[in-house]
Amino acid sequence: MFCSTLPFSNQSTVSATMSNSDDISQLPDCILHHILSFIPTKDDVKTSILSKRWKNLWTSVSNLDFDDALLYKEIEGQDPPDEICFMNFVDRVLLFRDTSTIHKFRLSCRVCFNPSRIHSWISSAIIHNVHELDLCLFVEDPFLLPQSIFSSRSLTTLKIEMNCVLQIPSFINFPHLKTLHLSLITFPDDELTQKLFAGCLVLEELVLLDCEWTNLKNVMISSPNLKRLTIDDLPYFGPPDDSRGCKIMIDAMNLVFFKYTGYLSNEILLCGVLKLVKADISVSILHERQKEVAFHVVDLLNGIQTVGYLRVSKRTIEFSKT
C-alpha cells in the first residue's frame, strides 16, 4: 500500500531489530544502491525503517518505477490504496530525492491521470539527468509532454506509450538517444514527425507499435546510424479505415534488422539499405484494399536488395502475386 510505505507519513514508527552481524548493511553504498535498483520503488522506501544505515539510501536509488496498476491488486484483508495516495507517494519520493542521476525512470498511469502532476514528475526525471525514460500514459484528453524531454542531453532510451497525438516541439535535439520506442501515439503532421526522427542524431533502434499515421502524407525517416527497425502496424482498435495511407521512406544505410507486421496500408520504401542481416515481413489480410496492398508488398520487397536471412509469411507472398 502506497500510504503505508512512506516513512514520512503520519503513522506509528515500525521498529526493526538488526543483528550485529548484519553483513548486508556493512556493504558500501554503491552496492546497496545496486541491490535496491532491482526491487519496486515502494519497497525501496520501506527499507528506511530498518536502521539508521538504511534511512536515506532510498533517496538516491538509481531506478524509479511507479505503476498505478498496483491499485487494482487485491490485498487480502486490506483496502486497496486510493489514487490520491499513489500520487502523493510519487510526489514525496521525488521531493525527498537527492541530486544524484536517475538511471531509469518508469511511470505507468492507466488510472491516476493528473496532467499537472505527471508533467511535474517527468520534468523532475529530466532535471535528474535520467538515462532511460519509460512512459505509459492512458490519457482522456490531449496531453503535452514536457518540452525538456525533446532536448535532453542525458537520455539514451525513450519509450512512450500514449493514446493521443504526440505534440512535438519545433526544436528537437537528442544528442545521445540510441533507443526510441513509440506505442499507440498519433503522429501530428509530416514536418514535425520528420523533425522528430531527424533530431535523433545517433539512433540505433527504432520500434513503432500500433501508431496512427492518418495525419501524414509523405514522411522520411532518415537515420544513418539506425541498425534495428521494427514496425508493428496492427492497430490496437482493429483494421484501419478506408482512408488512404501515407508514404514512409526509410533512409538507413546501416540497417541490419528490419521487421514489419501489419496490414501495409501505408507505402513503406527502403532506400539505400545494403547491410541487412535479417528481415521479417508479415502482411495481414485487408480485402477492401487488396490490390493496393499488393503493390505495397512488391515495393517493400524491392527495397531489400541484399539480406542474410529473409522470412516472408505465406500471405505476404500471395499478396505479391496478386
How do the helices and strands line up, and which of them pair or pack?
Blueprint: H1 2-5, H2 29-36, H3 41-46, E1 63-67, H4 83-95, E2 104-109, H5 115-127, E3 132-137, E4 157-162, E5 179-183, H6 190-198, E6 205-209, E7 218-222, E8 228-233, E9 247-251, E10 257-262, E11 267-271, E12 276-283, H7 290-302, E13 307-312, H8 314-320
Protein name: F-box domain-containing protein
Domain F-box: 21-75
InterPro entries: F-box-like_dom_sf (IPR036047), F-box_AtFBL13-like (IPR053781), F-box_dom (IPR001810), FBL13/AtMIF1-like (IPR050232), LRR_dom_sf (IPR032675), LRR_FXL15/At3g58940/PEG3-like (IPR055411)
Task: Give an overview of the whole structure.
By secondary structure, the chain is α/β, with parallel strands linked by helices. It has a single domain (82-320), classed as Alpha-Beta Horseshoe (Leucine-rich repeat, LRR (right-handed beta-alpha superhelix)). The chain is built from eight helices and 13 strands. The strands form two sheets. A ten-stranded parallel β-sheet has the order 1-2-3-4-5-6-8-10-12-13. α4 links the parallel β1 and β2. α7 (290-302) crosses α8 (314-320). The longest helix is centred in the N-terminal third of the chain and has 13 residues, at 83-95. The chain is elongated, with a radius of gyration of 23 Å. The chain starts with a helix and ends with a helix.
